[in-house]
Amino acid sequence: MYSQTCWNNVADELIRQVTINCAERGLLLLRVRDEIHMTIAAYQTLYESSVAFGMRKALQAEQGKTDMKNQVSIIQTISTEPLSTFG
Q: Is residue 22 part of a domain?
């Protein structure tokens, strides 16, 4: 986080100095900087949502595994009973 703040300060100072020499270039650099910030924010959001999705899928898989184990034990119990109990 500290390095990001440091780079932001460097970029701001660079933009300020470029803007003094040429306003159009300074405005273009501002747009580029803002676009970079928006792209980073989008990637952070995408990362967080993908982590949440992965956690949900892992929990669903664990629940499904438990359900399958229960079904297997029920089927094993039924299959070991003598046939005379069904007829």
A: yes
